[in-house]
């Protein structure tokens, strides 16, 4: 990846790479900044290839410079949103054995457990051509997804996964005249598209936007014509809202509107569907067809292929964007990344393929090879595009000394989005808001939101709750 970005410097050094507030960096200037930071990292003592390096920065110029610098020294980017609770950040960084951390000198969180490299204000180093770029099979990123045990799962993503994303989808490679908005949480897999699909295409990070379906709906409700001047709008991370899409087509759509599907374990997106006006008049927006060389399999409970339209099955994903697995979690990797028989295999296509088991239910549409999303096979939910295991929320609630047992359930479809928790406390009644504040110290807002008077049940309800969960 770094070699391709370097080629843009050699071919068109003054082309804008990043536009941030009142600052514009050319590709040459971006690489200079990254080299300056990379040399600071090298001086600290990066000891081995693919060493995880924490990046405690929000979206923006610093995040882009930091990720490129980490890749220049052959290390692995571990971007963490700095607004997360400090205990949560420390736990995530220690899970993947981070020693070095890139952060703002005057940032809101200063962590003494790690050797911190402060983001320099201005790099003075000139671009060099003697960097030894690593192979495409190197691990480039570790991103976290929700875990049912209460600890987020670290997903290992290789450079070749991102290269396929940046070059083999219906919208990539981007045009050099494109400008891509970068505003997603850097620990969210959509940010890989925002940063790397842009830089690898020689485009500018600021006509293309990739947002969650929830944010798309909110934006459209405030300004239905907000996307009319853009070339591509990609939405993902949750089920597309048909009413919002209908409003966009009535008030001014972008040139191309895409519904995307894909978990972090398959590098941002594995399927895409270009949304049409006819889709806006339907009941559901399909998630589409595989991108590039990705493969989608719909299997029954015995892992037999489902080909008949309208029959539900579980989605399995294979192909060059598939992650290497979970960091230091061989059992979970073996459970989710499985070998399945390839339907209709021949000499060119071996009979067994490694695939990621998504836990998503879907069905084929009658009209060609297109999938409709139906829901989950487990208790996982989406909140703002993030995957959240209900078990993680339960473990968070039960981690408090005042809580005996907790059960979390989805809200009924007719009510507001989100989840509802029932908690049986230990002993006497507690200050509910104080309990929530304590839990918040170690868990993100996707796990803990608010309380109501009937959320906390008598301790005698503990046995019933345990039975309900089992």
From TrEMBL:
Please give the start and end residues of each transmembrane region.
none
Q: Which residues form a coiled coil?
A: none
* Gene Ontology MF annotations: phosphopantetheine binding
One Pfam family per UniProt: AMP-binding
Q: Name one GO cellular component term.
A: cytoplasm
Record-stated family: Belongs to the NRP synthetase family.
> What is the name attached to this protein's record?
AMP-dependent synthetase/ligase domain-containing protein
The beginning of the lineage is: Eukaryota, Fungi, Dikarya, Ascomycota, Pezizomycotina
């Amino acid at each position: 990846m770094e070699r391709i970005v370097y080629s843009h410097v050699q071919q068109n050094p003054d082309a804008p790479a990043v536009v941030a507030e009142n600052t514009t960096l050319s590709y040459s200037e971006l690489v200079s900044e990254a080299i300056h930071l990379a040399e600071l990292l090298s001086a600290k003592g990066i000891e081995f290839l693919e060493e995880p390096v924490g990046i405690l920065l929000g979206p923006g110029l610093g995040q882009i410079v930091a990720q490129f610098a980490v890749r220049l020294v052959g290390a692995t980017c571990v971007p963490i949103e700095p607004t997360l609770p400090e205990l949560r950040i420390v736990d995530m960084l220690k899970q993947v054995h981070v020693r070095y951390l890139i952060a703002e000198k005057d940032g809101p969180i200063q962590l003494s457990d790690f050797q911190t490299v402060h983001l320099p204000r201005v790099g003075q180093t000139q671009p060099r051509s003697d960097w030894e770029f690593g192979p495409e099979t190197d691990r480039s990123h570790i991103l976290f997804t929700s875990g049912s045990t209460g600890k987020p799962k670290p997903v290992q993503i290789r450079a070749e996964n991102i290269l396929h994303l940046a070059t083999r989808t219906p919208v990539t490679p981007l045009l050099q005249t494109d400008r891509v908005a970068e505003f997603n949480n850097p620990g969210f897999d959509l940010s890989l598209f925002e940063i790397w699909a842009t830089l690898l295409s020689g485009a500018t990070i600021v006509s293309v936007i990739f947002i969650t379906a929830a944010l798309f709906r909110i934006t459209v409700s405030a300004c239905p014509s907000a996307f009319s001047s853009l070339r591509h709008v990609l939405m993902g991370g949750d089920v597309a809202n048909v009413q919002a899409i209908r409003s966009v087509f009535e008030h001014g759509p972008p040139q191309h509107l895409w519904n995307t599907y894909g978990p972090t374990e398959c590098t941002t997106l594995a399927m895409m569907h270009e949304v049409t006006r006819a889709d806006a008049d339907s009941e559901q927006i399909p998630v589409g067809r595989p991108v590039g060389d990705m493969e989608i399999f719909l299997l029954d409970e015995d892992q037999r292929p489902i080909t008949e339209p309208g029959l539900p099955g579980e989605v399995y994903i294979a192909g060059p964007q598939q992650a290497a697995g979970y960091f230091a979690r061989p059992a979970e990797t073996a459970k989710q990344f499985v070998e399945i028989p390839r339907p209709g295999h021949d000499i060119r296509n071996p009979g067994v393929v490694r695939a990621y088991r998504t836990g998503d239910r879907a069905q084929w549409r009658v009209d060609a090879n297109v999938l409709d999303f139906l829901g989950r096979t487990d208790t996982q939910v989406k909140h703002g595009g993030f995957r959240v295991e209900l078990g993680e929320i339960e473990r968070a609630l039960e981690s408090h000394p005042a809580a005996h047992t907790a059960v979390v359930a989805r809200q009924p479809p007719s009510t507001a989005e989100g989840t509802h928790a029932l908690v049986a406390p230990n002993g006497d009644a507690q200050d509910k808001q104080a309990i929530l504040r304590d839990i918040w110290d170690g868990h993100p807002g996707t796990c803990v939101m608010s309380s109501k008077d009937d959320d906390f049940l008598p301790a005698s309800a503990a046995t019933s709750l345990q039975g309900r969960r089992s």
